[in-house]
Request: fold
Amino acid sequence: MVPVGRALAWLARVLVVVPVVWLYACVLTPVGRAIAVFGRGVAITLGWLGRALFVWPWLALWRFGLVPVGRALAWLARVLVVVPVVWLYAYVLTPIGHAIALLRKGVGVALGWLGRVLVVLPCTWVYAHLLTPLGHALRWTALALGRGAATLLRWIFVVPVLAVWRWVLVPVGGVLGVLAREIGAALGHAWRVAGYVSLAVGRFLGRLLRWLLVDPLRWAYRSVLTPVGHVVRDLVWRPVTRVAREVRATVRQVRADVRRALFGTPRPATGLPEPQVRDRREPDVASTRTLGRSTTALTKD
Reply:
């Protein structure tokens, strides 16, 4: 087997390996080198042709055509546009702007001074020397009237009513209470004694109570309290109310005059006259009470 293997190996070497090595060394390698040299030369030639046909003309056009033209246009733009615009801005627009700013500042200062002299100072003087003293005077008058009316009502109405209550009604009530208690005890005894006597005594005591309590109270209400109330209403309450309304109307008129003097007369939105506002708190016809008219149960006959 070994000799046969060796013989096969020698045949394979002689018939295959040696021819292939010779073909590669003597044919393919020179052909490959020649092709490489030829390709390199072709590549160099094509590169030179490409530069000559596409790169160098554009470079020459850019360097010797566009760049000088662009510089010339830039110089012309600078000479014809930039320099005149800069000169116009520096020597014309800037002085004009400074003059306008100074003029605006001067006009603003002048308008501020005129506004202060013509509006602020007169309004301040009117407020300080007219409106403030007038408001203080109106406030002092209203306080004085209120205190005077309160004092007058107290001495005319409250004090007499308290005096009548303390020195008339309370003692009379105490006496009547004692009398009623004693009479009640007597009536109890009398009721137990006799029926007809108790009936007669009851009638007598009823008349006596009417004479001692109901009639004096009715007389005091008609003759004292009702005239005092009428006097207080006619001489104190109505004048005070009238004075208060006049003071309020005067204050409103003064405020309207001041507003009209400061801002002018306002015009209504439509051509219709402004409605007159009526004070609804005051009745149209005051219902008076006379000595012969009353609505209480004690004074009805």
